[in-house]
Fold these 2 entries.
Entry 1:
Amino acid sequence: MHDSVTESLNPAADLGASDAEKLTEVPGPRGEAAPGAARGAAYDSDFLRAARREPVNHTPVWFMRQAGRALPEYRKVRTGIPMLDSCLRPDLVTEITLQPVRRYGVDAAVLFSDIVVPLKAIGVDVEIVPNVGPVFANPIRDFSDLDQIRPLDPAADFSFLAEAVGQLVGELGATPLIGFGGAPFTVASYLIEGGPSKNHEKTKAMMLGAPELFAALLDRLADLTAAFMRVQVEAGASLVQLFDSWAGALSPHDYERYVMPHSAKVLTSLADLGVPRIHFGVGTGELLPLMAAAGADVIGVDWRVPLDEASRRVGPGYAVQGNLDPAVMFAPWPVIEARVREVLADGARTPGHIFNLGHGVTPDMDPDRLTRVVELVHEASAR
Ligand code: CP3
């Protein structure tokens, strides 16, 4: 596993983005079984096979937020460099993305970036404040504030991104790179609140009280996120994840009416690329069927709903991803081991399972325990 990063001698690893594009055929409905997906070097990995609901040699595993402060090597390279500045530097993006692959032996890399990077790239005044999160200098209050989100010129605005992804895909060889973007609602919640929020009150006030403004904002964000994700796939990412982390704050009715059309715009706009699309949020048990129907191939599940139950809710046409409670990582090892085995047993009753935490790695997690979890998942699921 650890070797896959250095295994660039694999002849298929030389397959760059342009070759992959040439091999792209027209995909089936919502990329069904990804018949014509970009056949890069990672195409036959267990990771992509699980996403396509094909048989695997072992259950693939990665961790959301696997790159980051839990790793001393991350803290070292980030010293003195603001978070969003580091995301715009291809050399740092490449190094930080590879760190958890080397360390944990996970089955996929996830691009080191952030859901607000596309806004930063078009000049919006945003910074990520340590231990707080994204903070916007000029929150969206009325239509004139939307001018901050100017039209995008992907070639110029995202050149740093294409460069980083191109470098990474070369280094990773047969290990897939996951590209991602923030869903319109979750990004909008930061833009409207001005920063992180517990109850999303300003966001919901706009959604319900100024629905045209809310829709116009989410529509612009959908285009921006879709372009951000498309650049990553065109540069060689093997699949994508749309993060709607805070969608669980909404009732199914409000989600369907005010939010789902914009997330569906992002996901369906990527269908022609033929790569699997993961759709994830926290506390979304009641939203899973809608989130699946928005255009996902894999549905991300937090720890509140067992994977087999989540699969039952969305139906057989979707793989599932998840869902060890991140807090379990702070319990004694025998508890962790038992819980990992439970997640695997639930996952075995679904059409395809990618192991993950139910939300991201937190800064205090012990990296050695995450390594042990990867080893356990691989051993316990070996076919
Ligand atoms: O998963 C990965 O390793 C890829 C990198 C990644 C980051 N952010 C890096 C990051 C991804 C996929 C994200 C997505 C993201 N960013 C989400 C959706 C995922 C989720 O966790 O729900 C959200 C809501 C954000 C917004 C954001 N950015 C928050 C809430 C924070 C944490 C603030 C803090 O300091 O606690 C960030 C900062 C951030 N993004 C860090 C990292 C590694 C920490 C920055 C640091 O090192 O100081």
Entry 2:
Amino acid sequence: MKFLILNGPNLNMLGIREPGIYGNGTYEELKMRITDHSITVGVEVEIFQSNHEGVLVDKLQESYFNKIDGIVINPAAYTHTSVALLDALKSIAIPTVEVHISKVEERENFRQVSYVRQAVIKTITGKGFDGYLEAIDYLKEYLEKNERKSTKG
Ligand code: DQA
């Protein structure tokens, strides 16, 4: 099973940006935690970050051709603005979990909109870096369940 972990703008600044909201852990630490967890649960992961909307769209399209089984996406600020990311997720139709490090539902009004939410199977917020690990577990279970269903006919 191969998952893409896709991170949007400013997530490379974790550890530096607003530690009161996002914590002190760096992006490198996040990547290490995701890698360690994926080894533990036996899935393959590619972790990718970009500050550019079009690059994120390209990466999502690529995952269709690269036969990615599941996606964990934190679109960061593009969550609240990007129809392009929503359309890309709809185009590829790969099971996707939306993750936010902070509890977006308790923050500013402009963060209450999520375009990608229409195309995801689950949203996890406010669990810090653990949210990514929970998303991986959820996707794995979801895909295993669906596989069992399809082999039963
Ligand atoms: C975020 C929440 C977004 O509103 C914000 O723009 C981010 C990070 C989060 O992980 O909590 O950059 O997606």
